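re: the backbone from monday

yeah here it is again, tokenized this time
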């Protein structure tokens, strides 16, 4: 089994990035590294590093994305927990063989080479889990 290397990030769904940054950056004091639009996921993300991890504030770009549907159904708040893994495909096969329900059978490959996949919250005490393999 491939080891989990650490928590890469905690993602929080927000209705408005600028409004959310008033708390996370301005009041709590986290530094904003950058904001990125990920068109393939239909989101805009603010990245706020904390130690070896990040808080990601995620705003849907439209009302059609999975994040927008989540926001409509559950409201703003924690969306998912992301773990960095050594070999994502091996980890997915191992988890599936143990009966873990996968959202993604195969990882998505991002433009920068990151690979990511999601595990269903019903297998993780109601928490959406993302796995990352960094290039």
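seq for it, each position gets an aa:
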């Amino acid at each position: 089994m491939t080891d989990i290397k650490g928590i890469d990030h905690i993602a929080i769904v927000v209705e408005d990035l600028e409004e959310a940054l008033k708390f996370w950056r301005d009041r709590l004091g986290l530094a904003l590294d950058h904001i990125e639009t990920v068109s393939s996921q239909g989101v805009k993300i603010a990245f706020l590093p904390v130690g070896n991890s990040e808080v990601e504030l995620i705003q849907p770009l439209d009302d059609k994305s999975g994040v927008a549907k989540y926001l409509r159904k559950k409201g703003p708040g924690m969306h998912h927990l992301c773990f960095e893994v050594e070999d994502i495909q091996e980890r997915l096969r191992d988890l599936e063989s143990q009966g873990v329900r996968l959202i993604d059978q195969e990882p998505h490959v991002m433009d920068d080479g990151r690979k990511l996949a999601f595990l269903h919250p019903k297998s993780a005490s109601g928490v959406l889990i993302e796995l990352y393999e960094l290039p």
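Strands lie at 4-13, 34-38, 43-50, 53-60, 77-85, 108-109, 115-119, 129-133. Residues 17-27 form the longest helix (11 residues).
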